Amino acid sequence: MRAYENVKRALQDIVAPEIKALRVEIKRLDEKIETLGGKMEADYKRLDEKIDSLREVEIKRLDEKIETLGGKMEADYKRLDEKIDSLREVEIKRLDEKIESLSRGIGDKINSLRNELLAEIRRVDGRIDSLDSHLQVAMDIRERLAKVEAKLAGG
Fold first, then answer.
1. pLDDT score recorded for residue 67
2. How far apart are CA 122 and CA 4, in angstroms?
3. Any residues with CB less than 8 A from the CB of 47 and at least 6 apart, and which?
4. In the chain, which stretches have pLDDT less than 50?
5. Are residues 131 and 124 in contact, defined by beta-carbon separation less than 8 angstroms?
6. Which of 3, 104, 125, 140 is deepest in the core (most CB within 10 A)?
7. What is the pLDDT of residue 143?
8. Residues near 25 by Cβ (< 8 Å), separated by ≥ 6?
9. Are residues 80 and 66 in contact, defined by beta-carbon separation less than 8 angstroms?
10. In sequence order, which ranges of the chain are alpha helices (DSSP H)?
């Protein structure tokens, strides 16, 4: 029985700290993911608010400009309308490009974090596999010990 206790103690000394370290590591990763999720949500909200604000300011500015030109000739109105449409298209295109760029950047960050998380999961899986092999060796030793004890007790 003493050998069994020694093996049991050895297993507890080897496996238990590793399991505890894995739990701490998993908790740290969960906290990191939650923090990143909150940050991304805040960034999206901030971008939406900024885009809405820019659109409102730009539209308001253009509307005020049109009103000040009310007394001018029809040719001036037509020229100004064309210029405003052109500016809107350029501004919308610029904003669309900026949004696309930000979206790609966020996508790249997400992919980077996903890759980092996958690497960490692979590392943890490797540690678990290592513990599995240690556990198998310990189980084999335990079985052999039980057989030897049975032979000693019987013979």
1. 72
2. 33
3. 99, 102
4. none
5. no
6. 3
7. 92
8. 120, 124
9. yes
10. 2-68, 74-154
